[in-house]
Amino acid sequence: MSNAHPVPFRAILRHVLLITGAALMLAPFIWMISTASKPQTEIFSSELHLIPHRFALMENLREAFAKANLLRFLLNGVIVTVSIFVLQVMVALPAAYALAKLRFLGRETLFALVLFGILIPPQATAIPVFLLLHKIGLLDSYAALVLPFTISVFGIFLMRQFFKTVPDDLVDAARMDGISEFGIVWRVMLPAAIPAVTAFGIFSVVAHWNDYFWPLIVLNSEHLRTPPLAVAHFRNNEAGTSYGPLMAAAMVIIAPLVIAFLFAQRRFIEGITLTGIK
Amino acid sequence: MAQIELSAIRKSFDGTDVLKGIDFHIADGEFISLVGPSGCGKSTLLRIIAGLEPQNSGEVHIDGRQVDGIRPSARNLAMVFQSYALYPHLSTFDNIAVPLRMRRLSAIERLPLLGALLPSRRAKERHIRADIEGIAEQLDITPLLRRKPGQLSGGQRQRVAVGRAMVREPLAFLFDEPLSNLDAKLRVHMRAELAELHSRLKATFVYVTHDQAEAMTMSSRIAVMMGGELIQAGTPAEIYNEPGDIRVAEFIGSPKINILPGRIRKDGGVDVLGTTLKLTCNAAAGDCRIGVRPERIELGTGPFSGTVVHLENLGAEAFVHLAVEGTGSRLIARLADVRHLPAMASPLAFGFASETVRMFDPAGKRIELRVEQAERVREPAHV
């Protein structure tokens, strides 16, 4: 019997390590849910307990929605992330197609510049971009949140790598059939690259939904706030931070991402592994 | 239907000459095979005809019209690719519809949602549907119209690709090794289907392949390319029986033609493996090479002797590999009667009729031979 189902020591060790890692990753998340479910008195009590004695999630949620226009901030988040993603795709796909499938002088140099662009952190260009937006008078607007991110070098790189795997014959067949070069991008390459676009979409939406740095810099008006900014404003120096509603609001703003992940879990994993296997 | 005229086509990639001046005329309704080893430039030539690749110099005329610099789609040719190149996200029906929609619908009518509402589009779509159903009927793919390429077998995809080419009624069909992704059995079957299709459509077919069997069985004419040059063009029988170059002789025919070292004497006689052949030629004295097809070698009698080193019995025929005595030469003989196979390692005499000999100079060019009268009793030589 032991021969039929051996449980190798290494497998046990592997799982113990993985579970420990997962627990470490999940701990703050679980603590957030726990705090969001506790009444104010329990949060500040000296004893540590995970399960609240009195379940106060609904109260905290109600207070969170009452204190701030959470729905508006969620809508802002959707407007900004969707606009960014759509514009990124509109820029990245033609660029990636040209870099992957067209032959022209300086293509390799351009691609090297794209790779170079990946190395530059957004914080490094934040001040020049801020000044630029100030000059054209776009600060404190949706445009200020969206425009700086429309050209994603990472997106161009990812799509270019994927387009490389699309057979040249398919492009040639499209040319024989009379499809124009832009037509090839949208009618042939885009449908073939849906997994890659999904993967890129996940990266892009997660990054910009959670972005705190850039909205904090360019926004003043409350009605334009994106979800992370909104949560941060629950911190109140004068009245003391009310952690219960803060955590409840945090739960609300990450909920869309978590739900999206649960629905698109397989796509998500496909997308992440995509660049590795192709 | 069209004739295609190629004149002085040259092409180089990164300083390497891929095509070194190709002149070729393809007549209306011909089935031309461009055949040659990989890297000989045959696919590049096809892509130049299609307009997918610009040539460095030279001209392409289709039906008398110069097409250089004209977009592939405007040349009105259809191409079938090795990988079939079907659009993976579209059904068989939509795949075949693409060239028609691109040609018949205006840009507005092609718009995803809005276009479908236009009444003019609906009328055109009805015609397109009728055309596609007709093609599907002919190719026997009607039950596959709603499936996606991923759900089709290799042979079915092949047929859909042919359907997509046929539906636009092009001036000529270009095939780029369309059968090389199929298994051996299906390949033989599709060979017959394509040949049938050609005789039914009576269109010009230009067919690129590295498989000499495909070229031999389907084409009305074969053009053999080597190293960027077109070295011989002719009917399959001409290419097989009268190769103008030793590379053509070696490339066409399976198993390969037997090449033996020979020597031309001062008086024009030819010595091979220590025996003088009953032939003469006008070439200068010196080394030469002698080619004899495996099926022309007669086993059991003859002035030469060898040892059987390997036997391949295919059931209907057998191939006997012989090591020729006294030299390092090997040759292969085809045996039609497999019931009387020689034993392995046994000595065997062999010979061949003088008129079956094809002789080549050291550079590989054909040398004309005259068969001595005494040998011409049985059949006239076609030399």
TrEMBL record, chain A:
This protein's record includes keyword Transport: yes
Segments traversing the membrane: 12-33, 73-98, 110-130, 142-163, 184-209, 243-264
Superkingdom field: Bacteria
Keywords, sorted A to Z: Cell membrane, Membrane, Transmembrane, Transmembrane helix, Transport
UniProt keyword Nucleotide-binding, yes or no: no
Cellular localisation: Cell membrane
Name of a matching Pfam family: BPD_transp_1
Membrane topology: Multi-pass membrane protein
Alphabetical list of InterPro entries matching this protein: MetI-like, MetI-like_sf
Ranges where the ABC transmembrane type-1 domain occurs: 74-264
Family: Belongs to the binding-protein-dependent transport system permease family.
Protein name stated in the entry: Carbohydrate ABC transporter permease
Automatic annotation (TrEMBL), chain B:
Keyword Zinc (UniProt): no
Keywords from the named record: ATP-binding, Nucleotide-binding, Transport
GO MF annotation: an example: ATP binding
Residues covered by the ABC transporter domain: 4-252
InterPro entries: AAA+_ATPase, ABC_transporter-like_ATP-bd, ABC_transporter-like_CS, ABC_transpr_MalK/UgpC-like, Mo/tungstate-bd_C_term_dom, NA-bd_OB-fold, P-loop_NTPase, Transp-assoc_OB_typ2
Family: Belongs to the ABC transporter superfamily.
Function: Involved in beta-(1-->2)glucan export. Transmembrane domains (TMD) form a pore in the inner membrane and the ATP-binding domain (NBD) is responsible for energy generation.
Protein's recorded name: ABC transporter ATP-binding protein
